[in-house]
User: Fold this.
Amino acid sequence: MIVSSVATNPDFLGTIALVWCILWWFLVYDSPVQHPRISESEKKYILEAIGDKVNQSATEAKVVPPFRKILTSFPFLAMVILHYGSNWGLYFVMTAAPKFVSSALGFNLTSTGTLSSLPYLARMIFSLIFGAVGDRIVKQNIVSTTFMRKFFCLFSHVVPGLLLIGLGYTGCAPILSVALITFSMGSNGAATLTNLVNHQDLAPNFAGTLYGIANGIGNTAGFVTPLVTAHFTKNGNGFAEWRPVFITGASLYIASAGYFILFGTAETQSWNYVTPVEEEEDKRQNSNSTDTTVTISPKT
Assistant:
């Protein structure tokens, strides 16, 4: 209980966040070329791995993301939808699962606090396992990156969705219900191979922008999920009321995966390669400063 109260204390969490920000500020750089503390061999390894997908000039010169092309790109929209489906599951466990465990399963608040941490622990462990598997697949070039992204959607989205459907039919079996919630989140750990990295595939030069847009939209699930849960459970907290909540979450999981499988890709998009603004301005200035020679014929 003491450890739990300290870990959830706002001052403790704020201090951890502040320490992380300070470390990030002094340790992270925009480019391996700019980093003062890595060896030449490390720089060479990173730059060779990046290849021509990231413009090194883009780390020093101002580059405006091609927002029109980004927002009209089917692969990008597929990634956003996939990310939204994943976030829905995360916010369900964060907001609705504790209520379900305490009200529908009859667990006391102390037990609920302990059990609510299991899905996150499972997700962390499974994400490490899936990440290791993905690295091995990429290293051995077994399948294409696009195939791997789509295949692991089965684990990050489809399996969690099916487990949520099963959760609505477990009846008064608290151990089974908690196990399904835990493994649903654990399987979603495969998101480290799908929606959490696809922005790096599509446009390494604008990966931060892409993920910012996707995560901004995905985080709207944080206030939509409680509204949906409240709507279906306003007349009670039995399994009959909770079943539509699970089916809704499962539908979003599976539908978002289906859309990504149809329209998603891991191929780097053409709009990833852009010319820095300074270079564009120089070109315009050069084109406007051409000398014109005027010949005047002598008067006879």
Residues 85 and 155 are 13 Å apart (CA to CA). The mean pLDDT is 84. The radius of gyration is 25 Å.
